[in-house]
């Protein structure tokens, strides 16, 4: 061993020095000390690359477990200097970055780890979690498939499958996947919360609440469970309770961007758009990812600040980043600012993506309709035929397309069905009145408007439409 050789040389050196009387000479003492110092350095360098990697990994993981994130990063960086192709090194420095809230940097490290070691399950799990939490359904699909190929009985892989299926509107597939996840690992928190989300989507609010509360009893810091509780309170009209739950979701996990976005959405829907923007702008840039500028831009379009939204998102669009939210918000901003060709270009880009949620296709159809292309809008909406649990906006846009195609009778049938599920909805009633007018059914149209005005006497859309109808029905 080199260290043994150094020790023997050191003993020989001191022995010779004593015999020569050199230890009494200050100059020679300095030479001796320096010699020992450099021999010590050589001893430290005597470890093999494998030993150094093991040392840096152990120290990095120790610091990480103690929450000393900067020290952990330094150790993992040292490991990667020894072996830049260490998949484990890239994975663990990604974990340290993630704990620091450096999300983009962590994802790059997990991607590198998975590329260097395609069978590294933990790296694929991190990538799939991020893709699902950020709504990147196309990116999530191959990661989830890889997880289940490596480990067909991986409970989290099945939970992620269920979450993705639910987001894309495939409730039966989501139910089966989540049931399987919980059978493999009873009480698995991500699957329990996702099951709560599924039950909430199905309007089984008590069942949903049971899943969330069961999760919180074992994990009080589950951000997703708190957002689920807030969503239930919101649906029940308990807005103060909902706001408290959404704020709790942010507090228990400050680095969870999804919770910040849900809180901002809640504020935005209640008309507090500037507060919503402030909530997202409070997130340090180092801790944010693309979702934050996209969401801020969405609020800017609602405020009519389309130029700001376009300026904020254009750099990402030029990079051809495949995130549907970017193209959708840009399409809306271009449309509202009168840039027809640019808006339609963004719609085309959006529709080229695979596995985009139904809400984006509905939005794309609305833009095509607004730009005078009802046939294209109809084709887009028809592609959603058979999708379960489509939102009311689908039926509203579908009926408006039928009116634009001069088929008011179809519009009436669509709206009558929609109003059975959404009784008294103002948008549906206004569109139904328009459809009745197109059929020259003045009395029926007036009756529809009266129904709306009895619930909301100040509805300007109904008031505006009622005047001309009164003239047409006078004396009838």
Report a brief summary of the structure.
The protein has 476 residues and is mainly alpha-helical.
**Average pLDDT over all residues:** 87
Outline, from the CA principal axes? Answer: elongated
What share of residues are in beta strands?
Answer: under 5%
Based on secondary structure, the structural category is: mainly alpha
Number of helices: 27
Q: What is the H/E string?
A: HHHHHHHHHHHHHHHHHHHHHHHHHHH
For the termini, the CA-CA separation is 110 Å
Helix content: over 70%
Q: What's the total count of β strands? A: 0
Q: Strand count, sense and closure of the main sheet?
A: none
Q: Which value, in Å, is the CA radius of gyration?
A: 31 Å
Residue stretches low in confidence (pLDDT < 50, at least 5 long) are 1-20, 30-44
Any descriptors?
476 residues; disordered N terminus; mainly alpha; 27 helices
Topology:
Elements: H1 2-20, H2 26-44, H3 49-65, H4 69-82, H5 87-100, H6 103-116, H7 121-133, H8 137-150, H9 155-167, H10 171-184, H11 189-201, H12 205-218, H13 223-235, H14 239-252, H15 257-269, H16 273-281, H17 291-302, H18 306-318, H19 324-336, H20 340-352, H21 358-370, H22 374-382, H23 392-404, H24 408-421, H25 426-438, H26 442-455, H27 460-473
Helix pairs in contact: 1-2, 3-4, 4-5, 5-6, 6-7, 7-8, 7-9, 8-9, 9-10, 9-11, 10-11, 11-12, 11-13, 12-13, 13-14, 14-15, 15-16, 16-17, 17-18, 17-19, 18-19, 19-20, 19-21, 20-21, 21-22, 21-23, 22-23, 23-24, 23-25, 24-25, 25-26, 26-27
